[in-house]
Amino acid sequence: MIREATDADFAAVIAGRAPEGLELPDGPIESSEVLGMLRELAQGIRTDFAPSSWFIIDGAEIVGLCSLVKPPAGSAIDIGYGIVASRRARGFASAGVTALLAWARQDERVAVVRAECAVDNPASRKVLERNGFAQVGQRIDPEDGPVICWEAAAS
Fold it and tell me: Is the CB of residue 140 less than 8 Å from the CB of residue 128?
């Protein structure tokens, strides 16, 4: 359900091509600006911690992305995820986060997985709740406004 997204994979998707062995969805995965930002973020994190980004896939089709959103802090990683608009509300985000947690539980570097979601995003809250994340606080994000902070044990 997840596959590492390499720099070459990001380059292909940004250019409108499917990475080897995968298919592009019928709609955009994300805007080229956001994909470029995610590519740069992954490149920066990957120098010290890899993998740092993954495609969420259904069969061979890319249905979303999940990634580390900043370099790990000790044994904690912070994740983000998004699903192609035409593939939302089908369980792909939950399945992608489940697969990412399974990966984290096999990686001895990771003890805690953290995530945030906007207070007014019930779908994302459900994804995290279904995957055993617990609310650990709230904060105000300069871009997203009020967000709920979540954690799940990986060890």
Answer: no
Nearest by Cα to 39 from 3, 76, 65, 73: 65
Per DSSP, 121 falls in state -
Kindly report the length of the chain.
155
The pTM of the full predicted model, rounded to 2 decimals, is 0.93
pLDDT of 15-68, one tens digit each?
999 999 999 999 889 999 999 999 999 999 999 999 999 999 999 999 999 999
2-153 is a CATH 3.40.630.30 domain? yes
Q: Which of 48, 85, 66, 90 is nearest to 5 (CA)?
A: 66
Q: Which of 88, 64, 146, 79 lies closest to 110 in space, CA to CA? A: 79
- Does an H or E element contain 55, and which? strand 53-58
DSSP-based three-state secondary structure for 142: coil
